[in-house]
Design a protein that fits this description.
The structure holds two protein chains of two kinds. Chain A is mainly β. Chain A contains no helices and seven strands. In chain A, a hairpin with a 2-residue loop joins β2 and β3. Chain A starts with a strand and ends with a strand. In chain A, 24% of the residues are buried. Helix content of chain B is 41%, strand content 17%. A five-stranded mixed β-sheet of chain B has the order 5-6-1-7-8. In chain B, α5 links the parallel β7 and β8. In chain B, 38% of the residues are buried. Classes of the chains: A mainly beta, B alpha/beta. Chains A and B meet through β4 and β5 of A and α1, β4 and α3 of B.
């Protein structure tokens, strides 16, 4: 099942043609390679805009990452790492 | 002609699009799944189990324990809704958002296209295909000569349906139905309408079907 988190993570990010894309991130002691960005959305928080990415890992794992340009910093907000 | 685009199980479908492991599975969008609450949206895979929006979460878990329970994210759905509106605006400047997952598209000012049911249905087919290709989402689209017909037609065939009705075929399909089937008519309004067109001796809970049709016709003509 999905688990909610609020874990700061280090994210290797690519900036290409004016858009950004997470490539891989370190979470709970392991490195997750982003196979695919499956969705993006944004949420305004005061003057800041938080940018969210739904990403798929190398297996069937699925995550939501949030980028806050004020830090700048990344947070892992949700993870699905397998059934159960 | 008017189109009403109604996104199929919108919240659940957005989660399925963003998280591939959820595709093809019963998905129930709710508040915090570990707390008491209600079902916000259920994917089409969850509906055969009897799960419906508004149902207490405890009941949904009893009916469909194997479903994936996902905490809803309204901001995400609003963002996707805005992206869809941008897509609709590429077809016509006359777009009227009706809710987060529904919008009317008025094709009457389009030059050369969308003026007949057939042409409007063709535009609806192209749009439905594009919504699937670009966003990975399903939509049911109603086509009609006015908003009432388009709105009611959109609910005839779901998911991923396209239903077109002119006024004549609309009457054929909807007038025989209970007046409550009409858009905007709830249980109380339904009772009022039935009373309006029934003689005093027939104003009971068991009204003849003919009166119901008359009420539908009267309501649709206003």
């Amino acid at each position: 099942m999905f688990e909610s988190h609020n874990d700061p993570v280090d994210v290797l990010t690519a900036f290409v043609d004016g858009s950004m894309r997470p490539i891989r991130f370190r979470w709970q002691g392991r490195v997750v390679r982003v196979r695919r960005v499956t969705g993006q959305w944004a949420r305004r928080e005061g003057q800041a805009v938080l940018r969210y990415f739904a990403v798929q890992g190398a297996r069937d794992d699925s995550y939501e990452l949030c980028y806050d340009a004020r830090g700048p910093s990344w947070v892992l907000s949700r993870a699905w790492t397998g059934p159960g | 002609m008017i189109l009403l685009v109604d996104m199929d199980a919108f919240f659940a479908s957005v989660e399925q699009a963003h998280h591939p492991h959820l595709r093809g599975k019963p998905v129930i969008v709710c508040g915090d799944p570990s707390r008491r609450g209600v079902v916000t949206a259920a994917s089409y895979e969850a509906r055969p189990f009897g799960v419906r929006a508004g149902m207490p979460l405890a009941e949904a878990k009893r009916l469909c324990p194997s479903a994936e329970y996902v905490e809803g994210n309204p901001r995400k759905y609003v963002e996707k809704s805005l992206e869809l509106l941008e897509m609709f605006l590429e077809i016509t400047p006359d777009v009227e958002p009706f809710s987060v997952d529904e919008a009317f598209l008025d094709l009457r000012r389009l030059p050369g296209r969308g003026q007949t049911l057939e042409s409007a249905a063709e535009i609806a087919r192209e749009l439905q295909q594009r919504i699937g290709d670009v966003h990975g989402l399903g939509a049911s689209i109603g086509v009609g000569t006015n908003k009432l017909i388009a709105k009611m037609a959109s609910g005839v065939k779901k998911p991923r349906g396209i239903t077109a009705h002119g006024e004549e075929s609309f009457r054929g399909v909807f007038w025989p139905q209970d007046v409550q089937a009409l858009w905007g008519v709830g249980p109380k309004m339904s009772e009022h309408l039935k009373a309006l067109v029934s003689p005093p001796w027939a104003r009971s809970r068991r009204l003849p079907g003919r009166s119901w049709s008359s009420a539908s016709a009267w309501w649709a003509s206003t």
